[in-house]
Amino acid sequence: MRKIALVVLMSVGMLASTQAKETKNMKRTADQYTFELSDDVTREKVHFTNRYGITLTGDLYLPKNHSNEKLPALAISGPYGAVKEQSSGLYANQFAQRGFAVVAFDSSYTGESGGEPRNVASPDINTEDFSAAIDFLGTQEIVDREKVGIMGICGFGGMGLNAAAVDKRVKAVAVASMYDMSRVTARGYFDSMTAEQRSEMLEQLGQQRWKDAENGKPAYGQAGLPEADQLTGNEPEFVQGYVNYYKTERGFHPRSINSNGSWTATNPLSFMNMPLLTYINEISPRPILIIAGENAHSRYFSEDAYEAANEPKELMNIPGAVHTDLYDKVDVIPFDKLESFFEENLK
User: Distance between CA 22 and CA 247 in Å, rounded?
Assistant: First the structure.
């Protein structure tokens, strides 16, 4: 049973240390970011509430010398288990330099956003988080609410596509290193989970609910990323990639679940039978841009989402790139392509 749970946790990128364990020798504090703010951009902390009453915290990025003309806008979140001071903020910083108003936000129950208990994900609530960010952007005087899009990274790529399908206010959506969290949780990596393994996992989760009920609080996952100095070189490439991002100065942040925490032990439950991309075809006729690394372990999610979507759509594979390259490598992430995509389609 332990082996099954660990395989699933590894496959969905939910690897994290337990709450009691902290990453070694990290100097970054909670108010620091993993990237430098552009001199041409302003950043302001903002708050808004989703329809479940959870207050979300984000950063609003604006081009510093913008005119009084209303701007196109983007809502950005991800990766799964990350916070706005990491990859989503980096993307927002880049887009603001290119003339967009952008909010990068922490999802419900994570980072500086509200919700109890901490470190819980939900296909429904996290989809709603994107729509709440659209609510916020559309009420800002500087934003043209008819020119609003979504950018989702990793697991929040799947959430972003789901949000675009249900929220017709979204005029265009792009995703990078996309994960379908419901698929990988329910079926395992490359759909390798057997019916017996799925049943055993659900039994395990049910027993954990009894324990949580008896204790009056949730338990947190025990599987964890190794520290960077514990890597042997024999780990799967994607595990090494996660460690080299979340557990080093490159991407570590003390509020990030993948850097310094863990999801609740029962976190997989709602993903087990709520497929996120059921209605991806209904995003059409609004355009989709899907970006994946040629060598990314997650590439198949992007390819399958592309096949399921209706036109207009585009799949862009970045030569030689792996999953985490699209988190923060500004020389690899095709920002010029993203800029032109949103400029052309946020009309």
Answer: 10
Strands, E assignment, the chain: 41-49, 55-63, 71-77, 101-105, 143-153, 172-176, 288-293, 313-318
Angle at which helix 123-138 crosses helix 155-166, to 10 degrees, equals: 70
* pTM for the predicted model, two decimal places: 0.94
Contact 315, 306 (CB under 8 A): yes
Structure confidence at residue 222 (pLDDT) = 72
What is the C-alpha to C-alpha distance for residues 79 and 84, in angstroms, rounded to an integer? 9
Domains of the chain: 35-205+271-345 (3.40.50.1820)
**How far is Cα of residue 192 from the mean position of the Cα atoms in its chain?**
23
Does the CA dihedral 68-69-70-71 come out positive or negative? negative
Burial label for 217, CB within 10 Å (0-12, 13-18, 19+), is exposed
Other CB atoms within 10 A of residue 7 CB: 17
| Number of helical (H) and strand (E) elements in the chain, helices listed first | 11, 8
Residue 97's nearest CA partner among 79, 71, 118, 121 is: 71
Assess whether pLDDT exceeds 60 at residue 6: no
* Percent of the residues in the chain that have a pLDDT greater than 90, as a whole number: 88
Specify the higher pLDDT residue, 12 or 38.
Answer: 38
Per the prediction, the chain carries an average pLDDT of 93
Considering Cα of 338, then 339, then 340, then 346, what sign does the dihedral take? positive
Higher pLDDT, 3 or 266: 266
* pLDDT band, very low/low/confident/very high, at 225 (cuts 50, 70, 90): confident
Judge contact between 179 and 301, C-beta under 8 A.
yes
What count of Cα atoms within 13 Å lies in the side-chain half-sphere of residue 144? 14
Could you give the CA distance from residue 105 to residue 119 in angstroms, rounded to a whole number?
15
Do residues 90 and 30 lie in contact, with contact meaning Cβ atoms separated by under 8 Å?
A: no
Cα 102 to Cα 89: distance, rounded to the nearest angstrom: 9
The CA R_g of the chain, rounded to the nearest whole Å, is 19
Q: What is the spatial distance between Cα 28 and Cα 34, in angstroms, rounded to a whole number?
A: 8
Paired with 74 in beta bridges are 102, 149
Q: Which pLDDT belongs to residue 21?
A: 46
DSSP label at 38? P
